[in-house]
Amino acid sequence: MNLYDLFVKPYEDYTALQIMLETTGTFFGILSVYFSIKKNIWVYPTGIISTLIYVYILFNFGLLGDCMINIYYTAMSIYGWILWAKNSEDNIHVEVSWATKKEWIFASLLFIISLLLVTVIYYYKPYIDNHFSMTGTNLGLYHLDWANWLDVFTTSIFLVGMWFMAKQRIENWVFWIIGDFICMPMMIFKGLGITSVQYLVFTIMAIMGYVNWKKSFKEKKRIKS
């Protein structure tokens, strides 16, 4: 399989609107990560625009299970936006720190709960994708391929990453790095070549974000001492 088959051929049957929407969603997704690196609260409004665009794209592709997960991401972004607004002195930027042991325990529970929740969504996905009709629908996990199982795993990783980000914890970047890297081949498999490139950019930016937040914390600690 060559680059044409991976990144161009899937789009031959797409409309100009679909391509424009995916490109726009990718742009705002990258912009959101940029603002996150800068510890700027605009990470959330730009991120919400991106997830809402993908809600629309996935809904129109009939991928209602994936669509519901992106609604979940949007809700988490609103939660993070509220927390950052409360903890920002200038209403734009926030201070960052490492997570506590108690927060790690909560994050572990969040990961497990998310795994169960997303698995349940995929169990009912045939029913959801059939527009909530049981006619000719068989419930179960039989329809899942390797990309879907990876999606279950990465969704849980991203949820924990989003929670750590909302709490302004440096560890959030570790989860983004792992999840973004895994998502690259998954998106190519789903025929979303532009989005797979987005995740490559996300991986690089997440590494930059980790370095930037860690450096910022060290400088703040040095000034206080």
Overall shape: it is globular
Order of helices and strands: HHHHHHHHH
The level of helicity is over 70%
Count the DSSP helices: 9
Overall pLDDT:
86
- Based on secondary structure, the structural category is mainly alpha
How large is the share of residues in beta strands? Answer: under 5%
**Rounded Rg:** 18 Å
CA-CA gap between termini = 57 Å
Low-confidence parts:
none
Major β-sheet, in short? none
How many E strands?
0
Protein name: Nicotinamide riboside transporter PnuC
Subcellular location: Cell membrane
Function: Required for nicotinamide riboside transport across the inner membrane.
Family: Belongs to the nicotinamide ribonucleoside (NR) uptake permease (TC 4.B.1) family.
List keywords for this structure.
225 residues; mainly alpha; 9 helices; 0% strand; globular; transmembrane
Question: If you had to describe this structure to a student in words, what would you say it looks like?
Answer:
The protein has nine helices and no strands. With 225 residues, the chain is mainly α. α2 packs antiparallel against α3 and α3 runs antiparallel to α4. It is globular, with a radius of gyration of 18 Å. The N and C termini lie far apart (57 Å). The model has no long low-confidence stretch (mean pLDDT 86).
Quick structural summary:
This protein has 225 residues and is an all-alpha fold. The protein has helices at 3-8, 16-37, 43-60, 64-87, 101-123, 125-129, 146-166, 172-189, 193-224.
